Amino acid sequence: MAAKKGGRKSSGRRKYGKAASKRVESAMRRRKKGTLKSGSGRKVKSRKQAIAIALSEARQKGAKVPRRRTGRKRTGGRKSSSRKRSR
Fold it and tell me: What pTM value is reported for the model?
């Protein structure tokens, strides 16, 4: 008996529509070109941010995109040491 890996259930349906995929593709090109801007007007350099902007645009246009996740803890960034080292 081969057990399936991972805890996700796959129903065989697409999670994101074709229109959303095209938006992400376009945003990635704009990011590479240097013309993709964030809400504040700054250039987007991060790949993740480019995808987030594209999905947001797709949502506004009514494309098939899952709802935003809320209440998720952010991890990453720089780790700071809480205690000081003395010599």
Answer: 0.62
Predicted local distance difference test score (pLDDT) of residue 26 = 93
Are 16 and 51 spatial neighbours (Cβ–Cβ below 8 Å)? no
- Residue found under tokens 């995109």: 65
Nearest alpha carbon to residue 47 among 27, 64, 68: 27
pLDDT computed for residue 41 by the predictor: 92
Q: What is the CA radius of gyration of the chain?
A: 19
**Single-letter amino acid code for the residue at 76:** G
Residue ranges of domains in the chain: 39-65
Is the pLDDT assigned to residue 29 strictly greater than 90?
Answer: yes
